[in-house]
Design brief:
- The protein is an alpha/beta fold.
- The chain folds into 2 domains: 6-320, TIM Barrel, CATH 3.20.20.70; 326-359, no CATH class.
- 35% of the residues lie in helices and 18% in strands.
- The chain has 12 helices and 16 strands.
- The chain has helices at 28-36, 85-98, 114-125, 149-152, 155-168, 185-194, 237-250, 265-273, 283-288, 292-307, 326-336, 353-359, and strands spanning 6-8, 11-13, 17-19, 41-43, 61-65, 71-76, 103-108, 131-135, 173-176, 198-201, 205-207, 210-211, 218-219, 229-232, 255-259, 276-281.
- It has an 8-stranded parallel β-barrel, surrounded by 8 helices. A 4-stranded antiparallel sheet has the order 5-6-14-11, with no helix packed on it. Strands 1-2 form a two-stranded antiparallel ribbon.
- Helix 3 packs across helix 5 (155-168), helix 5 (155-168) runs parallel beside helix 6 (185-194) and helix 8 crosses helix 10 (292-307).
- The chain is globular.
- The protein starts with 5 loop residues before the first strand and ends with a helix.
Length: 363
C-alpha cells in the first residue's frame, strides 16, 4: 500500500495536505476540527503584534459564477486574525496537546521592524508550534501599511526579514509568496538566502470580483463601498501551477507548499507533480467543508498505486522535466518532422484548404 506521509524540512506530515491560513484555521476549535478530520497540517490564521485593532467587515466574501451557477472563483476582503496574540499563545499549546502528531504552522506578519518580527517569532516558538510561515503576500489592507505583499514584492526585504526570524528560532521557515510580481523566483531565492527552508505559493490574487449592475458598485459591497480583494478558488489554478513550476525549476533547493485552486485530489496531485511537497487548501474547505480531505487522501493513494509510486517524494516535481521554452518546442517539432514537413511549410500548400487545414488540427 502506498505511503502518503512525507517528511518536509525534517518534519513528518501524516499526509501532504495542509489547511491554508484563513477562516478554516481561525481559532483552536477550527484547527482541532481540521485535524480530527484528517488534515496533515494546518497553517493558522496570520497573527501579529500590532496594537492597531483588526476589523473584519461584513459582507467580506464574493463568489464568481458561470451563467449556469457553478462557482469558479471566490474573493475575500478579510484581514488577518482579529484575536490577540495572548489568545493564540494559549491555543497553540491546546492544539499541540490535542494533536501532537499533526503539523501546526504559525503564520506571522509584521511591519518592517526587526524587534517586532523577532519578538513575535520568539514568543510563538515557545508554545510548541512546528513551523513558521512568513506572510509576505497578503494582498489587501495590510500592504498599504508596509506589510504583506508590500514586502513580498521586494526581494531584499524578504531576505532580511527571513534572516531576522531565522536568528531567533531553529524551527523550519516557509515564506509565503505573492503572485503580484513579474518573477516569483526572485523573492523565493531571497527567502532561501535568508534562511527559509521553503516557500508557500501562491497567496490570493489582487482583484475586483464584479460590479452590481443595479447599484453600479463593486462587490462585495459594505455600506455602499468596496475595495480590491484577494481572488482564489478553481479559476486561479493555472496561474498557481505556472508559478509553482517556476519555483520548482528556478529554486530547486526550496520545499514548496503549493496553493491555489485545489478542489480535489486531482488538483493537489498536479501541484505535487510540479514540485510541491505539500499542498494547501483554504477556499476549497470554506466551500466544501473539512471532510474534503478524505477524498484527497484516497485519490492520492489510488494515483500512487496506479503509477507504482511507493512514496510521495518519488513524484514531487516529476512533471517539471516536460516543461521547456516555446522556442525549444518549435525546434523539437521541426526535428521530428524534418523528413516529412508537408503543409507545415507555406510553400507546400496546394489550395486544398479544408484538407490541409485538417492536417494541422490537434487531434
Amino acid at each position: 500500500m502506498a505511503d502518503i506521509s512525507i517528511e518536509v524540512n525534517g518534519i513528518k506530515f501524516p499526509n501532504p495536505f495542509v489547511i491554508g491560513s484563513g477562516p478554516p484555521s481561525t481559532n483552536s476549535k477550527t484547527i482541532i476540527k481540521a485535524f480530527d478530520n484528517g488534515w496533515g497540517g494546518v497553517s493558522a490564521k496570520t497573527v501579529s503584534l500590532t496594537e492597531t485593532p483588526v476589523i473584519n467587515v461584513a459582507p467580506r466574501y464574493g463568489k464568481l459564477k458561470t451563467p449556469s451557477g457553478e462557482i469558479i472563483g471566490f474573493e475575500n476582503i478579510e484581514l488577518i486574525s482579529d484575536r490577540t496574540l495572548e489568545m493564540w499563545l494559549d491555543e497553540f499549546k491546546e492544539i499541540k496537546n490535542a494533536h501532537p502528531d499533526k503539523v501546526l504552522i504559525s503564520s506571522i506578519m509584521e511591519k518592517y521592524n526587526k524587534d517586532s518580527w523577532q519578538e513575535l517569532a520568539g514568543r510563538i516558538a515557545a508554545t510548541g508550534v512546528d513551523m513558521f510561515e512568513l506572510n509576505f503576500s497578503c494582498p489587501h489592507g495590510h500592504p498599504e501599511e508596509g506589510m504583506g505583499a508590500f514586502m513580498g514584492q521586494n526581494p531584499d526585504m524578504v531576505r532580511e526579514v527571513t534572516g531576522w526570524v531565522a536568528e531567533v528560532t531553529d524551527l523550519p521557515i516557509w515564506a509565503k509568496m505573492t503572485p503580484a510580481i513579474l518573477d516569483i523566483t526572485e523573492p523565493a531565492k531571497a527567502a532561501m538566502e535568508g534562511g527559509a527552508g521553503g516557500v508557500a505559493a501562491i497567496n490570493t490574487i489582487p482583484s475586483i470580483l464584479n460590479i452590481d449592475l443595479e447599484t453600479l458598485a463593486p462587490m462585495p459591497t459594505v455600506e455602499g463601498h468596496s475595495t480590491p480583494g484577494g481572488y482564489s478558488y478553481y479559476a486561479v489554478k493555472p496561474i498557481a501551477l505556472r508559478m509553482v513550476s517556476q519555483i520548482g525549476k528556478g529554486v530547486p533547493d526550496a520545499e514548496i507548499s503549493g496553493i491555489g485552486g485545489v478542489i480535489s485530489s486531482h488538483e493537489a496531485i498536479e501541484f505535487i507533480l510540479l514540485g510541491s511537497s505539500t499542498v494547501q487548501v483554504c477556499t476549497g474547505v470554506m466551500l466544501q467543508g473539512y471532510e474534503m480531505v478524505e477524498e484527497m487522501c484516497e485519490g492520492l493513494s489510488n494515483f500512487m498505486e496506479k503509477h507504482g509510486f511507493q512514496t510521495v517524494r518519488e513524484f514531487v516535481g516529476h512533471s517539471l522535466q516536460f516543461l521547456t521554452t516555446h522556442h525549444d518546442l518549435a525546434d523539437k517539432r521541426l526535428a521530428r518532422k524534418a523528413d516529412a514537413l508537408g503543409v507545415n511549410r507555406d510553400n507546400n500548400w496546394t489550395g486544398d484548404i479544408k484538407k490541409e487545414t485538417d492536417e494541422l488540427v490537434s487531434k
